């Protein structure tokens, strides 16, 4: 067989049960990296919410001047 890639977490040879990791523990470490990294990706939804929240406070002031 072709050379298997080592465990991306610790570099040990991967096991069939936890490929491509050497153990479930290393698979967990990689999963946590993905989860913590994904928090920074979906930003478009949050930006839209922030824009809307800036509008209401200006309404009372604009009404007073007219
Ligand atoms: Zn490992």
TrEMBL record:
GO terms of molecular function: DNA topoisomerase type II (double strand cut, ATP-hydrolyzing) inhibitor activity; zinc ion binding
InterPro entries: DNA_gyrase_inhibitor_YacG, Znf_NHR/GATA
Cofactor binding comment, as recorded: Binds 1 zinc ion.
SUPFAM superfamilies linked: Glucocorticoid receptor-like (DNA-binding domain)
Residues that hold Zn(2+) according to the record: 7, 10, 22, 26
Cofactor: Zn(2+)
Keywords, sorted A to Z: Metal-binding, Zinc
Stretches for region Disordered: 41-66
Superkingdom: Bacteria
Family: Belongs to the DNA gyrase inhibitor YacG family.
Protein's name in the database: DNA gyrase inhibitor YacG
Source organism per UniProt: Afipia felis (Cat scratch disease bacillus)
């Amino acid at each position: 067989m072709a050379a298997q890639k080592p465990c991306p977490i610790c570099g040990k040879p991967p096991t069939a049960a936890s490929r491509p990791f050497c153990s479930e523990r290393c698979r967990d470490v990689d999963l946590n990296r993905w989860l913590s990294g994904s928090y920074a990706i979906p930003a478009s939804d949050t930006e839209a919410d922030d824009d809307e929240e800036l509008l209401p406070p200006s309404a009372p002031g604009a009404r007073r001047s007219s």
